[in-house]
Predict the 3D structure of the following.
Amino acid sequence: QAAGLPVVATAAGGTGEIVHDRENGRLIPVETTAEQIADAIESVMDLGDAEYEAMSRDAHATWAEMSDAQRQYREFVDGLIALEG
């Protein structure tokens, strides 16, 4: 997602909070088969250019909002500094 790539992942743990099926990637069941994994990957590969670009933008936006460590650390430090005042 950081690279702007749609993700194919299993719905284990908190993955469903990050991967939104058919928005920024594909979310498949934990108990899955090789065929289901291949189908999910192919469904991303078969997207038209505009759909793929939208999914890629959404993947990067999700990363930026939820996983960008530099931004998160900066906000954490700013919060700590604000507590001093």
